[in-house]
């Protein structure tokens, strides 16, 4: 799998030849000013919740690429009103097989409203299972015991966890989450974008390493292989 970081919580993951884009927030992100959102490829766009910092570029990228947007029912209704046509609605607990792999929607403890203030439904995380690798994309969430359900019943090869604190889990909480999901290979997200969530990156990596875990912080615009 190839993983490209577009800043904040936005990643493009190539799974079985399909481009799966998570939580597109690029054009308003000063740290991602060198990324041209109009060149990003997408066959699927997965949206964890309705907040601006996860959905800002979803409409424009969906319309340009005709990607299938996967999101909760309330975001599905809102995207339809914005003229997006290719949308697959889901909700927490549901699993669906797509051509790249399966998507299971899992608990995220957070809030969700859309950029115009309308109700955004419940926030979600996603567990992706494929014949390549399995991973967990947590979205915005607090540390929660529900993460144990993921670790107890599914094999996770790597996970995207928020580490910026203030709005989501902190570095210390993400280290505990590793034990809940039984996965020690973590890609950090939701840090540094705003003043509230600035972190000390070398210190975060060291804290993980001290617990025998790996935290990868991808440079914005860079691609890694898993
Ligand atoms: Ni949020
Ligand atoms: Mn957020």
Describe this structure in words.
With 226 residues, this protein is of the alpha/beta class. The chain has a single domain, classed as 4-Layer Sandwich (Metallo-beta-lactamase, Chain A). The protein contains 6 helices and 14 strands. A 7-stranded mixed sheet has the order 6-5-4-3-2-1-14, covered by helices on one side. Strands 7-8-9-10-11-12-13 form a 7-stranded mixed sheet. Helix 4 runs parallel beside helix 5. The chain is globular, with a radius of gyration of 16 Å. Manganese (II) ion binds next to helix 1.
Return Rg in Å: 16 Å
Total domain modules: 1
> What global shape is seen?
globular
> If you average the pLDDT, what whole number results?
98
- Name of the level-1 CATH class: Alpha Beta
Helix vs. strand class:
alpha/beta
| Main sheet strand line-up | 6-5-4-3-2-1-14
CATH architecture: 4-Layer Sandwich
Write the CATH homologous superfamily. Ribonuclease Z/Hydroxyacylglutathione hydrolase-like
Following the backbone from N to C, one meets helices and strands in this order, namely: EEEEHHEHEEEEEHEHEHEE
- CATH topology label: Metallo-beta-lactamase, Chain A
Number of helices: 6
Number of strands: 14
Q: What ligand species are in this complex?
A: nickel (II) ion, manganese (II) ion
- Helix content percent band: 10-25%
Sheet with most strands: 7 strands, mixed
Low-confidence stretches: none
Distance between the termini: 5 Å
